[in-house]
Amino acid sequence: MTQKMLRKNQKGFTLIELMIVVAIIGILAAIAIPNFRNYQMKAKTAEAKTNIGAIRTSQETYKAENDLFLACAVNGNAAGTTPAKVAWADNAGGTYTTIGYAPAGDIYYAYAVAVGADAAGNAAQEMAIDAMGDLDGDGVSAFFTMSSDGALVGTQSAAASATAWVITPSGDDF
Asked: What does pTM read for this prediction?
């Protein structure tokens, strides 16, 4: 038998063809994985925005009935320091229950409401709702703050920690 006849009967892929396929799969994975992680982070971030909006609605309802906003202590995911979901427990003296707020399920963020006086000096007439969470466990926490007028601001801080997170109303917040 000649060399040509032996090659005709052999079936399969050459090493070069297999290496090309593996390289293509690697390139596609290198593109897809970071995009998927970004998509996951955006979905987790949507939780904070949704819950802040719901807390604001509850606070507005409470204010309509009681003529003031109610301060709510930090509640939620261990002050937002772990990248895992936790169950909501109104351990802040029942203040979230008082305003009629509870999230629909487990949460990634920690939430708090600070209240302050308005420009005329009337107590508890302005508020800032904050959410903090380290969603990927890298030590950089995302913060979202919504003021009484509904303005939502997001920032990140590497210095955030559960012990250092204290919300204080200031002129910038209102």
From this structure: 0.70
